[in-house]
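In line with agreed milestones, work has continued on tokenised descriptions of protein folds. One protein thus recorded appears below exactly as we store it:

>
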Amino acid sequence: MAAPGIGVGTGGCGLRRDGAAGVGGGFRCSLSAFAFGVRVRLSVFGGGTGVGAGGRRSDATRAAILAAARERFAQDGYERATIRAIAADASIDPSMVMRYYGNKEKLFAAAAEFDLQLPDVHSVPRDQIGATLARHFLVRWERDETLPALLRAAATNEAAVERVREIFGRQLLPLVTAVSPEPGEVMFRAGLLATQMLGLALCRFVLRLPPVAALTPDEAAAWLGPTIQRYLTGSPARD
């Protein structure tokens, strides 16, 4: 009896009992069905040729890790927070945290990143810059829990303190440079602006002082705008 062979035709592939070429009796698998099966298996096990579903899952996992890390760092501080606890908060395995971020230091740096998304002051009337910034900061912080969590962590952790300094220093300086009447006063004016903004964030989101926590963006602009304006473009009182 002839040894079995594989016959290939235009419709698919068949295992022939007689070893002859062509398409005939015996076990046959359709190439299209085979390809479909491969796609199904890749889909089930997380593979595939595209990045759609896998990319979305990856983004969702990263977001869950960062959200859990911010809360854990704010609650426990940098030293006491652990990768295991953060993973448990995110309902994932600790190895996934390490896969995406490497170690706790890198995870903290990623979790503490915060874009102030400052407006273009060149498009704002000069006498309205202070009010515009006061309103902007309040609206910006309401959309993102990163800064409040970072401020809570900064109360007990030097790494968080340095992160706050870096964020505000790097992002505020260009804005202040653009509007300061005296180049030599840029650092001083930026520091004063930071005290106003960080003080507002601390009292509103961390301490939750009732009058400050209830401020609307327009009220913040009305009350804080003139002070911020003076820090940016005004002159100190002279005796």
Summary: Confidence is low (pLDDT under 50) at residues 1-51. The radius of gyration is 30 Å.
